[in-house]
Amino acid sequence: MATKDWIYVLRGGTAAEWNEKNPILRAKEPGVETNTGKFKIGDGQTFWVDLPYYLNEDAVKIMVSEAMQNAAPISGTQVTAIVDRVKSELTLPDLVLAYQNAKQQA
Questions:
Q1: Calpha distance 1→29 (Å, rounded)
Q2: CA–CA distance, 68 with 36 (Å, rounded to integer)
C-alpha cells in the first residue's frame, strides 16, 4: 500500500488581523498569531477575542518569574506544583486560578 505525505497548515494571521475579524473557530480548530506565536483553540461558539491563549513553556516561565517578583513569596514546592500543572496544558484562566490559590495558601 502506498503512503501519502500530508501537510497540515494551521489557520493564521497577525494579532491585529485576528482581533479585527474576530471569528468563531470550530471546535478543536487551532488559530495562530503569526507575529506573536501565541495560539488559541476554538470551541465552536466563542469569538476569538474571548478565547484564552494556550501558553508555551517560555511564556509560562516569564509569567511565573513576574508573579514571583510582584507578589507574596511562595515556596519552591508551590512553584514546582504550578509548573507541573502548567505543563499539563493549562489555559491562562487556569493558571491565574492556580496562582491565586497558591498565594492564598502562602
A1: 30
A2: 24
Residue-wise pLDDT for 21-40, tens only, equals 999 999 999 999 999 888 89
Q: Where are the alpha helices (DSSP H) in the chain?
A: 15-21, 57-70, 76-87, 92-105
pLDDT tens readout for residues 44-63: 999 999 999 887 677 777 77
The pTM assigned to this predicted structure is 0.52
Using alpha carbons, select from 56, 83, 55 the residue that is nearest to residue 102: 83
Q: Max alpha carbon distance in the chain (Å)?
A: 61
- The answer to whether the Cα torsion of 29, 33, 34, 38 is positive or negative is negative
Q: Which value, in Å, is the radius of gyration of the alpha carbons in the chain? A: 17
The alpha carbon of residue 74 and the mean position of all alpha carbons in its chain are separated, in whole angstroms, by 23
Backbone angles phi, psi at 11, to 5 degrees: -65, 130
